[in-house]
Amino acid sequence: AKAQGKGRLAVFDEERNARQVARYRLAGSMPEALRHGQFFVHYQPIVEFSERRAVCAEALVRWRHPELGVLGPGHFIGLAEDSGLIVELGRWVLEEACRQAVAWAHAAPDGHTPLVSVNLAARQCQDDRLPGQVERILAETGLPPDRLQLELTESAVMDDHGKPLRVLWELSSMGVRLSIDDFGTGYSNLSYLRSLPVNGLKLDRSFVHGLGAAGLATDPVELRIVAALVQLGRALGLTVTAEGVETELQARRLEELGCDLGQGYLFGPPSAPGPTGPVQL
Ligand code: C2E
Ligand code: CA
Ligand code: CA
Ligand code: CA
């Protein structure tokens, strides 16, 4: 039995090794994948509850891998953060999203430019060159600064002493909108929020789940938690967006609670940019 146990351990080690090797290989092939145009961006509509009108689109990156097929960001964003490639990849996504928003504006009958929202990794926020990069991309694409929203997580925008990073003020003074992503999942205290130059909060989908995911009723405790988070956001004058809205019940609850915007499969999955985009204005 003992020998057998050892054998099993060896198999586990081998599996773990194989996984590591696969990860290294994937990470190693990313720079070339970026050069060869294997990354692409899908856009998911963000909808106003009252009118059910898309007012924004979130850019979500994917990788068309020659052997593995299409990979979601869960497979490679972490690797890119570890290797540092996220700075280059993130800049590419930003540029691509800004170009796309300008293309939608040209296609719109009234020339109105939709808001486009782009995720930033912690590594990008900690890079002093970020504001300059954003400024240059806006100038080159011609996207007005207030048509760009950047989504940053709570942990990414604080320094080691729990103080907000300076880049936040630089970005916000350029007129770019800032939104706290995955709000509620971090463990920072809430008092910092008051001092941050942000325009919005995105409630993580784990909170939205309890409001009545498919086949489930609304959980009264979860409802009170989301109510408190929405009220907090509104008290601070922030636009509150709920992620992961999948059912009409969730949408109704969120609208009742005064949540401004929603995003999720109910309104539309992330998809390739059409000529006028997921944003119908
Ligand atoms: P996120 O910022 O929380 O983005 C929302 C994720 O939820 C997306 O997953 C989206 O496809 C998924 N989603 C949307 N609606 C629903 C719904 O109704 N139900 C459920 N269950 N899921 C829904 P995706 O595209 O796989 O992206 C995962 C994460 O990868 C994102 O989470 C974001 O943190 C990160 N990510 C994506 N693109 C980028 C990027 O360009 N840069 C960086 N740094 N991170 C990115
Ligand atoms: Ca509304
Ligand atoms: Ca996001
Ligand atoms: Ca989330």
TrEMBL record:
Domain EAL: 23-281
Protein name, entry field: Diguanylate cyclase (GGDEF)-like protein
Organism: Allostreptomyces psammosilenae
